[in-house]
Amino acid sequence: MPSEGATMGYRPAYPSDGIAPIPQQRVVDKLDEYMSRRDYAGAERHLLYWLEEARAGRDARGELMLRNELVGHFRKTGDGERAMEHGRRALELVDELGFGETISAGTTYTNVATACNAFGHNETALELFRKATRLYEGAANTDARLLGGLYNNMALTCVALGRFDEADDLYQRALHTMSRVEHGALEQAITYLNMADALEARAKAEGGGHGGGPGADVERGIQRCLDTALELLDDPTVPHDGYYAFVCEKCAPSFAYHGYFLADDDLRARAKEIYERA
Fold it and tell me: Do the beta carbons of residue 64 and residue 24 sit within 8 Å?
């Protein structure tokens, strides 16, 4: 599952160039409000309204921010065609604005790459992730949450392409990076669940285990990953807010898939309780 940490953080500043900029922070705050209620329809209307405002005001930077958000929105709602449409325009805007060597470009490459992976365009995803990695690792001020999320999402693409050693390395880098982030336990939990899936995928690809399924060693490795993920989701220092609910809801099916049905039920109940309070 993708880490959302890699796909957040695009907040460019504005020059005094006479354009009519949209109020980016207000747009983002309202979007967060919609998402805290899991109101995807409201979030979509909100983003599309401000996209038209940005285009009318010739605010290319605001448009880029909104295209990035729309890529993520349509990825989450499963609309590959629209996610790719906004992704292509976002990449064009990076070039038009001369942002090619900036952190903002890295965030755009990561957003679009994550969507490409979600909809099966894995070679394109890997190319974009590599561009983002060069920018993120080459900058002194890259937010560790962005970098950790990038490693996690890039590893998903490597697993899809059968590049398991690269994926293992990236997952370890993601865990190390997110261990330095406040409340990074949620992103680490996502990574451990992805590692469990990667162990199973590798075993199947390499024909391990009896009858083509995972062997005992692989099963033990998967169980360790699942148990660690559950411990991280139970971290008492993590705020039980809308993002926590989103992560619980996102992680629950992975536990169910591997037979952790009580954990699945519990995580769904946690998410439901938080959403009902919002």
Answer: no
What are 93-147's pLDDT values in tens digits? 999 999 999 999 999 999 999 999 999 999 999 999 999 999 999 998 899 999 9
Secondary structure of 151-162 as H, E, C letters:
HHHHHHHHHHCC
How many structural domains comprise the chain?
A: 2
pLDDT (0 to 100) of residue 16: 52
Euclidean distance between the first and final Cα of the chain, in Å? 25
* Of 181, 246, 248, 242, nearest in space to 32 by CA: 242
pLDDT of 33 strictly over 60: yes
CB contact at 8 A, 244 and 274: yes
Same domain, 157 and 270: no
In tens, the pLDDT along 174-184 reads 999 999 999 99
* Domain hosting residue 74, numbered range: 1-161
Instruction: Name residue, tokens 């970098």.
Output: 147
